[in-house]
What we know:
mainly alpha, 0% strand
Amino acid sequence: MDEFLDNLLAQTGALQTADPEVVEQLKADMSERVAALINRRLIDALPDDKVTGLETLLDEQPNNVEAYQQFINDNLPNKQEIVNATLLEFRALYLGAGA
C-alpha cells in the first residue's frame, strides 16, 4: 500500500515539494480513506444472503480483524479484483476524473 500511496503523491508532486512530516500525514490520511473505500466495496460486493452473516460477525467480534478478513476471503472469490478496481477508483478520485 505504501508504494501505491507514494506513487499517487509523486504524481501530484507532493513528494518533491512537501515537508516529510506533511507527506507522512498525507499518507496516513490517504491510507485510512483507501481502506474505508475498499471495505465499502467489499461489503457492497457480498451476496445479500452473506451480509447478515457479516453483520453478526461484526456484532459478536467487533475487534476481530482476522475473522472479518477470513469471512471476506471465504465469501468473495473475486476479492482481489474488487480491491484492484477500488485502488484504480481511488486513484481516479484522488488525481481527478481525467487521470
